[in-house]
């Protein structure tokens, strides 16, 4: 009977955490696909064509779409889950979004269970998970359909860490010498390998798993280093397996080309890149503490980096990193041991290091979705601090007061997350809200212009696209969209100039070639129009009917 009450309390609080994670997104279950979802789902042949598992496992996650050939993401299980959803409901967004909410709820509960496995009290574990579940920084990860890869990978990593914590601390020195121990060891390693490869096949960010296992094992008192080495070694084998499969499928282990519009740090040398990356560390920390300014795009030139990189802010970022390392070693190895804080620092720092641009240039400058797993680490740090203070302060009144403050804070977070969810109701609302925080993004002004054009407000759309080009005159996508709007406004020569420049900026651009084909088809020069349309079709633009019409016109003569 002694264990019944705690188990009941854990189940009840886990249900509360799950509910807190799901509620802010329920209003938006039928919101349309936006931004990258259009490429990843609506226009992704791997998702909307027949469910071909072999093709999915041997292709770029974007379906080898010509416009995204520069981004060789290999995430076959994520694509497979989207394709399976499409097989069931087509392009009805409800099930896609509901799945993301369920995954976020499950990840929040997994975080609570991880905190419990590390020795936290039930209340502190639930409050930490509630903070994670309600955090508005997770809007991008939850409300974009394609980012279920982030949610699922994180859920699997947290589940593996729960398993690891139990295994590291329960292993006896004699493990493996008896038949039962050998079976348990085999099962442990099978589970480790399975979860690792699944997480990697959802998102390559799971390459951090072996390093997380080592850092977590080192932080736990009494851990079996034999078990740590076995689990980390198994994870490394799965990592090598994934890299081999990735190379077989898409011919690349790393990103071969990073567009500077996505990450302008590729334009500068190592010193300037590291200085800018250190500038981003305080930004990431401020977003985790209290996200006042949020956006769905940090590409060129939202933050102004690298031009605006400050040596003073870089020093602040460096101090934060050194402080984090000191906190890990203090909490892991000093007499004031706190496995919660040490593990929290590891889960925060190791995944962030991968995408920070500090070690190597990342495929993007920064992204709030990339803070999803690191924020779980930050939540564990908060739980660890709460538990540390609880041992120092015996006043129950202070404890209840602190818990009440955290609950109120989380309720405020839930309101902010629900508010951000409402931004996803349409493209204009989403881009307006992001541009209000960071008006320097050429990509967002271009996307706003496209949304306005699709709504029939051509003049406003053209103005937004011109704003995009004022930030980046070489933005091929904006030049293409400008040409399309000018075509609709009846300004063919300006449209042609814009489309030709788009093709100059991005040779072979299918969308621009397709629009130029349509424009030239209405001009007297049939030969030129036919040549352009032929090239457009070869590049994947859907203008086959225009080409056939031109060929027919050519056979009829003048």
Summarize the structure.
With 558 residues, the chain is mostly helical.
SSE topology sketch:
Layout: H1 4-22, H2 36-42, H3 45-48, H4 53-57, H5 76-89, H6 93-117, H7 122-134, H8 139-143, H9 148-170, H10 179-202, H11 209-219, H12 225-250, H13 270-289, H14 311-333, H15 339-355, H16 372-392, H17 396-423, H18 427-437, H19 442-454, H20 458-471, H21 476-488, H22 492-505, H23 510-521, H24 526-538, H25 544-556
Q: What is the residue-mean pLDDT, rounded to a whole number?
A: 91
What is the approximate shape? globular
What's the helix-strand series? Answer: HHHHHHHHHHHHHHHHHHHHHHHHH
**Structural domain count:** 2
Helical proportion, percent range: 55-70%
Distinct helical segment count: 25
Overall number of strands: 0
How does the major sheet shape up?
A: none
Cα-atom radius of gyration = 26 Å
Task: Look at the helices and sheets and give the structural class.
Answer: mainly alpha
Q: Into which percentage range does the β-strand content fall?
A: under 5%
**Low-confidence segments, ≥5 residues, pLDDT <50?**
172-176
What is the terminal separation in angstroms? 94 Å
Describe this structure in words.
The chain is mainly alpha-helical and 558 residues long. It folds into 2 domains: 420 residues, no CATH class; 103 residues, Alpha Horseshoe (Serine Threonine Protein Phosphatase 5, Tetratricopeptide repeat). The protein is 70% helix and 0% strand. The chain has 25 helices and no strands. Helix 19 runs antiparallel to helix 20. The longest helix is centred in the C-terminal third of the chain and has 28 residues. It is globular and about 90 Å long. The chain starts with a helix and ends with a helix. About 1% of the residues have low confidence.
């Amino acid at each position: 009977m002694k264990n019944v009450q705690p188990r009941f309390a854990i189940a009840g609080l886990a249900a509360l955490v799950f509910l807190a994670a799901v509620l802010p997104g329920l209003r938006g279950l039928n919101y349309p696909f936006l931004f990258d979802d259009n490429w990843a789902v609506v226009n992704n042949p791997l998702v909307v064509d027949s469910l071909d598992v072999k093709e999915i496992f041997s292709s770029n996650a974007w379906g080898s779409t010509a416009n995204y050939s520069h981004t060789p993401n290999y995430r076959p299980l994520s694509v497979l889950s989207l394709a399976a959803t499409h097989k069931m409901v087509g392009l009805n967004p409800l099930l896609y979004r509901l799945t993301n909410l369920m995954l976020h709820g499950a990840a929040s509960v997994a975080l609570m269970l991880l905190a419990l496995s590390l020795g936290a009290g039930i209340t502190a574990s639930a409050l930490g998970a509630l903070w994670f579940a309600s955090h508005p920084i997770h809007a991008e990860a939850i409300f974009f359909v394609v980012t279920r890869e982030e949610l699922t990978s994180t859920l699997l990593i947290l589940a593996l860490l729960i398993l690891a914590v139990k295994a590291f601390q329960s292993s006896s020195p004699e493990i493996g010498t008896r038949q039962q121990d050998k079976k348990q060891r085999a099962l442990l390693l099978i589970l480790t390998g399975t979860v690792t490869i699944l997480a990697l096949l959802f998102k390559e960010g799971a390459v951090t798993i072996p390093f997380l296992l080592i850092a977590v094992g080192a932080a736990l008192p009494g851990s079996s280093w034999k078990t740590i080495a076995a689990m980390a070694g198994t994870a490394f084998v799965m990592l090598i397996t994934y890299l081999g499969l990735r190379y077989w499928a898409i011919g690349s282990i790393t990103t071969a080309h990073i567009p500077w519009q996505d990450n302008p740090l590729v334009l500068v040398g190592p010193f300037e890149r590291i200085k800018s990356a250190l500038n981003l560390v305080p930004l990431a920390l401020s977003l985790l503490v209290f996200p006042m300014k949020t956006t769905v795009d940090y590409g060129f030139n939202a933050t102004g980096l690298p031009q605006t990189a400050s040596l003073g802010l870089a020093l602040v970022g460096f101090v934060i990193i050194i402080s984090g390392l000191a906190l890990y070693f203090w909490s892991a190895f000093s007499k004031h041991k706190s496995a919660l804080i040490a593990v929290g620092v590891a889960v925060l720092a190791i995944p962030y290091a991968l995408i920070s641009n500090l070690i190597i240039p990342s495929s993007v400058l920064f992204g709030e979705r990339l803070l999803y797993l690191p924020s779980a680490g930050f939540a564990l740090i908060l739980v660890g601090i709460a538990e540390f203070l609880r041992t120092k302060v015996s006043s129950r009144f202070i404890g209840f007061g602190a818990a009440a403050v955290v609950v109120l804070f989380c309720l405020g977070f839930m309101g902010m997350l629900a508010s951000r969810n409402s931004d996803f109701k349409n493209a204009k609302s989403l881009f307006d809200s992001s541009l209000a925080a960071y008006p320097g993004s050429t990509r967002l002004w271009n996307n706003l212009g496209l949304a306005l054009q699709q709504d029939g407000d051509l003049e406003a759309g053209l103005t937004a696209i011109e704003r995009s080009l004022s930030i980046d005159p070489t933005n091929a996508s904006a030049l293409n969209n400008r040409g399309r709007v000018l075509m609709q406004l009846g300004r063919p020569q300006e449209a042609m100039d814009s489309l030709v420049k788009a093709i100059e900026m991005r040779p072979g651009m299918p969308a621009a070639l397709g629009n130029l084909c349509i424009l030239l088809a209405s001009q007297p020069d049939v030969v030129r129009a036919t040549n352009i349309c032929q090239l457009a079709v070869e590049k994947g633009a859907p203008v086959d009917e225009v080409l056939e019409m031109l060929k027919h016109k050519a056979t009829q003569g003048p």
